[in-house]
Amino acid sequence: MRTSARLTPGANRLQGGRNPYLFVSPFFVLFAIFFLVPTLASLVLALYRWNGVATPEWVGLSNFRRLFSDPVFWQVARNTTFYTLASVLILIPLGLVLALGLNARALRFKRMWRSIYFTPVVVSAAATSLVFQILLSRDAGLVNGLLGQFGLGPVPWLQSRAWVKVGVFMVVAWRTLPLLTVYFLAGLQAIPKELHEAAMTDGAGSVRRFWYVTLPLLRPVVLFVLVVVTLNSIQLFDEVQILTDGGPANASATAMHYLYSRGFERLRFGFASSVATLLFGIALSAALVEARTLGGLGIDREG
Amino acid sequence: MGGDEVTITMWTHDVQYVEFFTEVANEWAASEHPEIDFTFEFEIVPSLHDVVLANIAGGQPLPDLVGISEFHFPRYLVDDLIEDHFVDLTDRIGTDYDRVVQGRWSIYEWNGKTYAVESALSAVAYYYQPAIFEDEGLVPPETWDEFLESGAALGVEGVASGVLTDAGNVFEFYLHQRGGRVFNEAGDFVLGDPGNRQAAMDVLSLWREGLDSGAFTVVLQSEFWGPSQINAFDQGSIAGTIMPDWYADAILKPQAEHMAGHWALAPMPVWSDGSGLATTVYGGTGFAITKASPNIDLAWDLLRYSYLTVEGQVKRYQMTGYYPTLFEALSDERVLVIEDPYFSDQRLAEVYGAVADQVPIWYQSPYRLAFLSSAAENLPLFFDDDLNSEEFLDRVIQAVETEIEFYG
Description:
The complex is a heterodimer of chains A (303) and B (408).
Chain A: H1 11-15, H2 19-45, E1 48-49, E2 57-58, H3 62-68, H4 71-103, H5 110-122, H6 125-135, H7 142-149, H8 164-189, H9 193-201, H10 206-217, H11 219-234, H12 238-243, H13 255-264, H14 269-293
Antiparallel strand pairs in A: 1-2
Helix pairs in contact in A: 2-14, 3-14, 4-8, 4-11, 5-8, 8-11, 9-10, 11-14, 13-14
Chain B: E1 5-12, H1 15-32, E2 37-44, H2 48-58, E3 65-69, H3 73-77, H4 81-85, H5 90-93, H6 103-106, E4 109-110, E5 113-114, E6 117-118, E7 124-128, H7 130-135, H8 144-156, E8 162-164, H9 168-178, H10 194-213, E9 216-218, H11 221-224, H12 227-235, E10 240-244, H13 246-255, E11 264-267, E12 285-289, H14 296-307, H15 310-320, H16 327-330, H17 333-336, H18 348-355, H19 368-383, H20 389-407
Parallel strand pairs in B: 1-2, 1-3, 8-9
Antiparallel strand pairs in B: 3-12, 4-5, 6-12, 7-10, 7-11
């Protein structure tokens, strides 16, 4: 019995010509308007002095010279590096562990646990930060209250230059970890069960199965999570602005906070653009290095 | 002037201004312009100044009136934006200028012109808990020397008499009380001038001595306005705080309702050598009129009616708790007789009225935010004694001078 379908005369035209481009164009139009054009404009604006209203004034590389000669910039750069490394080295492994737990066959009420774990993601950064500002209060906060029950603290989470980054990171972790867990969970559930069964048949225990079956197949997800976490850390702003406004003494300030306080608040948009340009370059480089290191996404280029 | 139907719009950050202006505007319309059918659109706009500046940049509509806080006023001075987009009120104010505490005009002046009318005296006083002082046989200090002395006595008991924080404008207001200035009338940075530098050093010495003896404690900005400090007041570990008139209604009463009757107000301690002023100021919001307004004359008339008449200022005080800036209103019986139950029925206007003519005259600059940021960034280091007074001051001065050199 013949199974081939009879194609209508016009069907071939769907696969060629301008039609494929028309179908994908909405995304690229929006991409151009809301990303490409502003990015290029920012790159150009970094070479100007502009208050947002008057005609921009050409200053060449002065904004960058000012940026690199500002000790505060280097301080916020170190802070941003701290948040990035902490997020990559702590949150990613933790997210994977949580996902493994939420994916375990022995876990009952899976949907309930997954919903609970996902809740922080749906609460805005502003609301979360405002609540944590109270929770992390040195004398009136719940966190120190709990620590006190064990004879510890009080810890000046937001009042100490030594502790403030830890305090901010706790809030970042609260919001970020559930999202990473969901990404990993989706990746784990995409791994065919047969592969695990085959490995078990060959005598592989849970550790070996994780190392030789799960992890390699999770590589695309790991790369995705790594890029997302890196980019989010480089752009960290909301929590810092609300919890500490970068203080005390810029100990918690990030590069994005620096861009906002030095650029937007003082109407120095050219300078703000120079910071944005630098961050863009760093983020792009980081993403490319990560992609190269982890061997790309493993996508079939022939589609 | 509009025709029969006119819409007056206003943007502000504070709901109290919306309520006040709504009530006064209706009175004004009925009494002063019964021939006009007004619509008043008074709104709270989040991130008000970002929105206003973005609208200026984008050529988008602006309201007739904008409430510009003194903290954000420097942003409008960048490249003289204020001159291009806001109405010079100098001539309209005219002789009313001398009826108002001058220090509340100067903060909205630029290049010899006045652009906004202030909403509140914002004078600073000493909020203290009398019971704590009485328990130790002490009286509230009248001078800084007395403050340090009684503060040291209380400090031994683990009780601070005042609170410092890493806000540049707190350092600034202490400096103003000492008689120093950061910027002059022309907007030049003068903190490094000998007199101003000495005033700053005096303030820092006062703070250092107070911190070392326990008279002052530190609560950083991340917790200064929240429950942590209120908790400390409640537990008696902080006996008082030096804050402006709006602190009571904005912070203390809403967050420490249960402490009603535990507080009293005293004048801010003064410098024992007699120099400096009896008070200083912290905060304030001035209402300005945009050049884009199609109703400049009417907007000014409303502003004048609300803010430059005794009746308007008395009503504003009654509705918002923001003290009058008109000398006549400050001495008006309706203001003076108000007894505040939170302060054990004390007549707070008597405290502020007595020092109103001592409100410092100081000036703004587009570089003020650079000064405030640098001071805020270095104050924690000073508090921790990682920077001495000279080092702190040198850092702040250098930061501002670098900014001026780059953008000047």
